[in-house]
Write a structure and sequence with these properties.
The protein is of the alpha+beta class. The chain contains two helices and six strands; from the N terminus they run H-E-E-H-E-E-E-E. The chain has a four-stranded antiparallel β-sheet with strand order 3-4-5-6, with no helix packed on it. It has a two-stranded antiparallel sheet with strand order 1-2. Strand 4 and strand 5 form a beta hairpin. It is extended and about 80 Å long.
Length: about 150
């Protein structure tokens, strides 16, 4: 079964140019008007890089967390390395994700939580009026039966 020559050439071109596209991380930000915008940062570890390549290119991380998981092939060990400005997640020895750390934003002045109000003091229960001597409840309407 042979393929059409132009289809094979097109496939080769797509694969060749797709392999050379620069990888970048994306940042989703919200502006003052709450409009989302995507920013990119090209100089972060790329998916598939080995731990040794990350150290060679970016140096030692400021913090290395121990691996989590790894009890089975379905749950491989995931390791996190923190760098100034981004965090790298590894599955086994390979980068699976890089997260760009957002700069700390000061809280708006109206976002300060209000102090909790103290509970109102409980008023003592008012005593119920005593029942009339005839055993009738004065709160129920009485009818004359003649």
């Amino acid at each position: 079964m042979s393929q059409h020559p132009s289809l094979t050439a097109l496939t080769a071109l797509v694969l060749a140019f797709g392999a050379f596209q620069p990888a970048s991380a994306e940042i989703l930000t919200l502006g003052k008007d709450q409009t989302p915008a995507v920013m990119t940062k090209a100089d972060t570890p790329k998916r598939g890089m080995r731990m040794s390549e990350v150290v060679k290119k970016y140096g030692q991380p400021t913090r290395k967390l121990p691996p989590v998981g790894g009890a089975s092939p379905q749950r491989p060990p995931i390791t996190r390395w923190d760098y100034p400005g981004f965090t790298v997640y590894f599955e086994n020895k390979y980068v699976v994700h890089t997260v760009i750390n957002a700069p700390a934003q000061p809280a708006p002045p109206d976002a300060t939580p209000a102090p909790a109000k103290p509970a109102a003091p409980m008023s003592p229960a008012e005593p119920k009026p005593a029942a009339p001597a005839d055993g009738m409840d004065s709160s129920t309407p009485q009818t004359n039966s003649k």
